[in-house]
Amino acid sequence: SDHMENICGYLMKYTNLVTGWQYRYFVLNNDAGLLEYFVNEQSRHLKPRGTLQLAGAVISPSDEDSHTFTVNAASGEQYKLRATDAKERQHWVSRLQICTQHHTEAIGKNNPPLKSRSFSLASQGSANSPGVQRRPSQNAVSFFNVGHHRLPTGKRVPIMQPDHLVDVREMMSQAEGQQRDLIRSIECLPASGHLTSLDQDLLMLKATSMATMNCLNDCFHILQLQHASQQKGSLPAGTTISWLEPKISLANHFKNGAAQNFPAEINKPASVREEQSIAEPCQLTREPEEINPDEELEDVCDDKEDDLGAVEEQRSVILHLLSQLKLGMDLTRVVLPTFILEKRSLLEMYADFMSHPDLFLAITSGSSPEERMIRFVEYYLTSFHEGRKGAIAKKPYNPIIGETFHCSWRMPTSSLATDAGTNSSAHCPSEQTTPPKDPEGQAEPDYYTVKFVAEQVSHHPPVSGFYAECVERNMCVNAHVWTKSKFLGMSIGVTMVGEGVLHLLEHGEEYTFSLPCAYARSILTVPWVELGGKVNINCAKTGYSASINFHTKPFYGGKLHRVTGEVKQNMMNTVVCRVQGEWNSVLEFTYSNGETKYVDLTKLSVTRKRVRPLEKQGPFESRRLWQHVTESLRDGDIDKATEHKRALEERQRNEERLRAETETPWCTKYFLKDGDGWVYHKPLWKTFSAAQTQQTDSN
């Protein structure tokens, strides 16, 4: 009680991706068990901007730095806060924890104890004693003895009390100690001999034991949140309790950015020396290069990623890596093994999302704002299937800063005359079906050209910009994506932070959209890809919007790759189209007039992109930059691919270090910083606007 003091002061609060961190004035009300915040100290007498109940909350110092911490309330709401220094963070964290413990215990004292469930520890031996060293299988079976007593039918199950949670916490602490000793014992084994530290069974035990402790710890905290919520009443409608980062400090042997142990580089091949000797990008010309589509040839590369051989052969490396990762760890700076890589760069993967240019070009042909929005949703949902190469979850190359990728697609004008759009009966009869003519009367080619360019504009954080346009159809799309990857136990999650904008210039419409999260599941067995999260598509001018949900598979039952969505007219709040199905199989569109349309993604025609031959590409174009890594992967030479990959990464680190020492900013080539985003340097909407202005002046 001596430390139960009310404190107040300024902290930085993370609001969202757009607004970022903002200073707010926080007040800890110990008597009420509340954490409140205001815009500033002067507005303290007004109603708080936000309030958190601290009973049942979890206060967690962050691993990101020494200033940040989080407050996870029992309702599921979270505040991410940052103090000015480590000392101030410790002051706030300790006071918040004292207040939280006091009010959580106060709730428990006002409720009867639980009689229906008892816990007993099978082994009371010290985690450090020799007697505990028994076979892992015996420990796994007999470690806990949980007894359940059947309640009379119709009686309500009493609520678990904090003292029982303390018992569980004590057991988990002992389990954590034994798991830590297990890890230490495995790592102390010799590197060679009959039983080594790299034995596959021991590595499996090491990885799964850590994942099990992480999972148990998450379950324990969810139990705490549910307990506190039950004391105050049922959770508010729509509230979900999500998985939290681990609060038990598991052994952390692996630091972000730590180099892997690869064989010593002896007699490097000429290609590696070439990769390391390429001049610093800013010393090369950074002037944007105009790519002539006539120099591009239809792509004949077809690297499907269905081969599991390398993954099976390198399973011990995967297990060793996983056993050293921490739940929630940012993988941005983690060097991943080469054999899990796809044979393409992330920039090229973004281009493969455009493999149905007929659906993309058909968007602007919609005869009404409603139809154009529906067509865009159809194109958007069909883009992810072809963007993935094969069923196995592999990772594209992390682009090097300054890396670019160029390609194009040619679409016969006749293929759009019949129109692959949403509802053929609703198309405008006056739609142009013949190629346009230039001012001299010469007929243009009988195809439309969609040009694509992507550039890695930032290394930390890793941000890519990409842009596509079709001049003949007066439409273009500009997007920037920041990929944030995290280790989630037996899976890896990738958040695609950023925004894209589709411009239909003839209609003066802009469609903003985001991208779903991606997950690599079952990374210890047969890894597969799952999309998840909610994305929104909006057109401010027309008032139409779309909400799309990518559903992750629940623990029990449910379908894989399920997606649902609806298109709405916001002014009238009416749904004009609903969609459901699987994003990699069949989609069902139901329109407001009662009609239904099915799209089988596996049968959609794919238009091959056109790419310049390697000899005509610049040194920082994706395929030329990664050509030696790709060739080695095709040949199955993992060691050689690793050597080439490391040479590229070392060069990038050296260049980054040199820029930091000389305070030289990075110069992008095709994209310009625009607020929080990146915009192509010569977008079609600028030339279109200039042409319209010139035409108006001439009239």
TrEMBL record:
Gene Ontology MF term list: sterol binding
Keyword field contains Zinc: no
Record flagged with keyword Lyase: no
Polar residues: bias regions: 117-137, 416-435
Localization per record: Endomembrane system; Endosome; Golgi apparatus
Example GO biological process: lipid transport
Subunit structure: Heterodimer with OSBPL9.
Official protein name in the record: Oxysterol-binding protein
The organism's taxonomic lineage, starting at the top: Eukaryota, Metazoa, Chordata, Craniata, Vertebrata
